[in-house]
Write a structure and sequence with these properties.
- By secondary structure, the protein is of the alpha+beta class.
- It folds into three domains: about 200 residues, Bira Bifunctional Protein, Domain 2 (BirA Bifunctional Protein, domain 2); about 110 residues, Herpes Virus-1 (2-Layer Sandwich); about 120 residues, Anticodon-binding domain (Rossmann fold, 3-Layer(aba) Sandwich), CATH 3.40.50.800.
- Helices cover about 40% and strands about 25% of the residues.
- The chain has 18 helices and 23 strands.
- A seven-stranded mixed beta sheet has the order 3-9-10-16-13-12-11, with helices on both faces. A five-stranded mixed beta sheet has the order 20-19-21-22-23, with helices on both faces. It has a three-stranded antiparallel beta sheet with strand order 5-4-6.
- A hairpin with a 4-residue loop joins strand 14 and strand 15.
- Helix 2 crosses helix 13.
- The longest helix has 27 residues.
- It is globular and about 75 Å long.
Length: about 525
């Protein structure tokens, strides 16, 4: 499905709403609806259990959103947490300079993909995409334009050269999407942190920031956690929490928001062993994504050309969203920058005594950081499909279905009495509902014809539907319908819970990622 259909489906079926919609909305801020909050919680549970519960040497914390302002000075956010900002003088619209250039590259890439698809149709099974991209003259020229533009952009960003960025925008003849003109201001840096005041203290003394990332709460608690949990290096600290960034251009639905949720783990290792663990977490995190059914073709690694000031190695796991491959998760070797910076500015030692080496040192850190909201969007984007299926009479009909991994589905089972006002069927259905609700997320639905109810459950990704009919009252069996195969089988009432849990229990999923 295209992106507009995905956004529309999310609202219609209670996954995501525009925040403050009754007041015409608040840009780049969204609320999660009844099905959305369940899916999001399941994603967080999957991450937390696979990261903390499945590892003896990883523990969790929940640090405060407000922290001492010196933390952001030490981390580099006060001085270096910026995006290149440029305005169009005619539309008065504000843009990120790097995203304008990336958009230029995306348009050329779209032309390349169009040529590739034409060739694929022409040559059929004999088509070799890699060879075609490497030998077709037009594609080679277009790819060279992409590489040149992005290469020069990356160099300008690394050099903090805003003049070079503006020159590149002008040279590429990039126009404002709104006004269509190329009348740009100078490019300047824009700090992304939201600030507020502490109580009644005025001025700089009372200035606080809404945290732009959750990692620093882990670093400043490093010694507290290590001592109280008695962990030995290597060990990790995990956290799920809200972060806030005053994005210049927040776009693409929940992909880029001003208030978002991160799932991060900082893994503390001996200096010199960071690349070994960097590789370990690179492999482990890719396996985590694929375990829930995300195909390898929709995931890829992207190594950073410009490393952040704290890193000696960094890559993204990118997912193919409807608008192209974009960052889903970051894996970074952060060296000892964070602990070292906090140690220097605070004047307190943040070191670990290694009994095997009989020495103190500031540990190195390997980070895995994934946006919960982006993971949510990736799951919805990949699993929302429209397909042709046989109807009750064997004819072809269209259904919209979300094929979530059963463990992540918002509702695991729907209980459906065949007839709405039949006292016996309603009672039997509610008895089954009351039993299942202790085991998993279950929904009772008696409105509309049974076929329409099936389609409604398909649209929110419910793996199983249990239909209670007149035969149930005679022999205590029900119809169990499976979402993906559409198979319907009769099973005894007392086996419903076991059948549903067999595929929806997250423990079975966790065994695949250990």
């Amino acid at each position: 499905m295209d992106f507009k259909q995905i956004v529309s489906h999310c609202k219609e079926y209670g996954f995501v709403y525009q925040s403050s919609e009754v007041y015409d909305g608040l840009a780049a801020v969204y609320d999660y609806g009844p099905n959305g909050v369940l899916l999001k919680n399941n994603i967080k549970e999957y991450w937390w259990k696979s990261m903390v519960q499945m590892h003896q040497n990883i523990v969790g914390i929940d640090s405060a959103i407000f922290m001492h302002p010196k933390i952001w000075k030490a981390s580099g956010h006060v001085d270096a947490f910026n995006d290149p900002l440029v305005d169009n003088k005619d539309s008065n619209k504000r843009y990120r300079a790097d995203q304008l250039i990336e958009g230029y590259a995306d348009k050329i890439e779209a032309k390349i993909k169009k040529d590739v698809e034409k060739a694929r149709k022409k040559f059929g099974d004999a088509f070799d995409e890699k060879q075609f991209r490497e030998t077709n003259g037009r594609i080679i020229d277009r790819q060279a334009k992409i590489d040149d533009a992005l290469g020069r952009m990356n160099k300008a960003l690394a050099d903090d050269n805003m003049e070079a960025l503006k020159s590149l925008i002008e040279e590429l003849e990039i126009a404002c999407p709104v006004s269509g003109t190329k009348n740009w201001t100078d490019v300047r840096q824009f700090n992304l942190m939201f600030s507020t005041q502490l109580g009644n203290i005025a001025g700089e003394d009372g200035k606080l920031y809404l945290r732009p990332e959750t990692a620093q709460g882990i670093f400043v608690n490093f010694l507290n956690v290590q001592k109280t949990s008695r962990q030995k290096i290597p060990f990790g600290i995990a956290q799920i929490g809200k972060a806030f960034r005053n994005e210049i251009v927040a776009r693409q639905f929940i992909f880029r928001m001003r208030e978002f949720e991160q799932m991060e783990m900082q893994f503390f290792v001996r200096p010199g062993e960071e690349m070994k663990w960097y590789q370990y977490w690179k492999d482990t995190r890719m396996k985590w994504h694929q375990a829930i059914g995300t195909p390898a073709s929709k995931l890829r690694y992207h190594d950073h050309e410009n490393l952040a000031h704290y890193a000696n190695a960094a890559l993204d796991i990118e997912f193919e969203f409807p608008f192209g491959f974009k960052e889903l998760e970051g894996i970074h070797s952060r060296t000892d920058f964070d602990l070292g910076s906090h140690q220097e500015l605070s004047g307190r030692k943040l070191q670990y005594f290694d009994p095997e080496l009989n020495e103190n040192y500031v540990p190195y850190v390997v980070e895995t950081s994934i946006g919960c909201d982006r993971m949510f969007l990736a799951q919805v984007s990949h699993n929302l499909v429209q397909e042709e299926v046989p109807d009750a009479e064997g004819k072809s009909s269209t259904r919209v279905v979300m094929k979530f991994h059963p463990s992540l589905a918002p509702i695991k089972c729907a209980v459906l009495p065949l007839v709405k006002n039949h006292e016996g069927l309603v009672k039997a259905s509610k008895d089954i509902f009351d039993e299942l609700k202790f085991e998993t997320s279950v929904q009772y639905d008696e409105k509309d014809a049974i076929g329409r109810r099936y389609r409604r459950q398909d649209a929110v990704g419910t793996p199983y539907c249990v239909t209670i009919d007149h035969q149930t009252l005679e022999d205590q069996t029900v119809t169990l319908r499976e979402r993906d195969s559409l198979n319907q089988i009769r099973i005894p009432v007392d086996q419903v819970s076991a059948e549903v849990l067999k595929k929806t229990n997250m423990n079975n999923l966790l065994k695949e990622v250990v």
